[in-house]
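Q: Hi! Curious about what Myb/SANT-like domain-containing protein looks like structurally. Here's the sequence.
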Amino acid sequence: MAAKVPSSNLKATPHIKSRYNLLKRQFHAINEMINHNNGFGWNNVEKCINTSKDVFDDWVKRHLTTIGLRNREFPHLDDLMFVWGKDRATGAGAETLTDAVEEINLCDEETTNLSVK
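A: Let's find out. The predicted structure is below.
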């Protein structure tokens, strides 16, 4: 930042990191609402969440990170899906730490058995 705009006195670390964290928090909140399928929809033309005020207000009571996202334009959803779309594991396909350790151990055993033969 200092090289491109020397008179700005902006530092990349707090400003860019803060914006990154905000986008990530908003992305996950919007993505969770869309995947919840309980009165929420995505308007691809206006790039915002579609829902009634009652449904949204009820959701906000349980998910405070969604405050202010109703009918608010979020044009980056498609692009950020590539960045953070697989960031959270949920549902039947989610792998726990125990599952990961067991899989690593199985791979180690297979490697050991192949090298012994």
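A: A fun detail: Residues 12-91 form one domain.
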